[in-house]
Design goal:
- The chain has 325 residues and is mainly beta.
- The chain has two helices and 27 strands.
């Protein structure tokens, strides 16, 4: 058999996964001007894995509902916010009174690098992302979410009731919302390395119920008006580790009343002075970088990993924990 024939057979034997890309720019020059229009144009059921890329400085003011028949395929919606800082020159969904930026009612969806903004006047927007509890294999990562303040059971990210599994929420920065992240009674979620700041009620709120599995690790929560953390319910399974709170509400030993210093303003990167040993646990089996794309070495809590951790630290044990010097 000739080498050409062998090569052709080998190429045929290698699986090829296609990916269909759709572009969104509210200012024009793309396939669609809103993410909702892009979703409306998807085949139902999907016939491929789809990637919707969103860019541009013009606000997308249309709330988005994601509810296609996935047909066994996946959908990724990707913004262009990659610095861990809110940037008005980048794509954002900005919704008005009583609206939710993204309602997610499908399995197999990834939301990443998106900026979601509510209005913060006397009438408020509802939620950044609402996840239907019965859906599975959902990832929400590297998003910036602000100003969702309508009263009620609302949040920057809310996971509804239902048995859907593998819902992972990590490396997000959420501030100035009613609740930062909430998991309703009967919901399941994995919540890792989120930074949640200045919520008007609770930073991270979970409800344990029979059959639930909720995992929360390495979250960094500060400035909540009622409490940084709230656990409700007594059944179900809640696994926590290294969730640091500025108040006394952390469920984890040694993680309450933490001194948390950010870079300043609405820059929620860790300040360079943060040499306290607020070390989280390694989640390298799930992800390995922070919201900026920096490799996680120390596993700092929250969305940001200090890019230049001290070299050759010594550890001093004190009554409030360990301090790296």
């Amino acid at each position: 058999m000739s080498r050409k024939v062998i090569l052709a057979l080998l190429l045929l034997a290698v699986p090829c996964w296609a990916l269909t890309t759709i572009t969104v720019n509210p200012g024009g020059g793309a396939d669609y001007t809103t993410t909702q229009d892009a979703n409306n144009a998807l085949p139902n059921p999907l016939d491929d894995d789809y990637l919707i890329t969103c860019s541009g400085a013009t606000d997308d003011t249309t709330q988005t509902t994601i509810a296609p028949d996935m047909g066994g395929y996946t959908l990724t919606i990707r913004g262009d916010a990659t610095s861990g800082l809110f940037d008005d020159s980048k794509y954002q969904i900005k919704v008005s009174y009583s609206q939710t930026a993204i309602t997610l009612n499908a399995s197999g969806v990834t939301l990443e690098n998106l900026q979601l903004t509510g209005i913060g006047a006397s009438t408020y927007s509802r939620m950044g992302i609402s996840v239907g509890g019965s859906y599975s294999n959902i990832t929400i990562r590297n998003c910036l979410i602000q100003d969702f303040l309508q009263s009620g059971s609302y949040a920057g990210i809310r996971v509804g009731s239902g048995t859907g599994a593998n819902k992972r929420i990590y490396n997000n920065v959420i501030w100035n919302c009613v609740d930062g992240i909430s998991v309703l009674q009967g919901g399941n979620a994995e919540i890792y390395n989120n930074t949640i700041v200045d919520c008007t009620r609770y930073g991270l709120r979970v409800y344990k119920d029979t059959g639930d599995t909720i995992i929360a690790k390495n979250n960094l929560i500060s400035g909540s008006d009622t409490a940084d953390w709230l656990t409700e319910g007594t059944a179900g399974t809640l696994t926590t580790a290294k969730n640091f709170t500025a108040d006394g509400s952390s469920p984890d030993a040694g993680c309450a009343n933490a001194t948390i210093t950010f870079a300043g303003g609405e820059d929620f990167h860790l300040d360079a002075s943060m040499n306290q040993d607020l070390r989280g646990v390694s989640l390298a089996g799930t992800f390995t970088v922070d919201i900026d794309g920096d490799t996680r070495a120390w596993w700092d809590p929250g969305a940001d990993e200090l890019s230049d951790p001290p070299t050759g630290p010594t550890i001093q044990q004190t009554w409030w924990g360990r301090r790296r010097q």
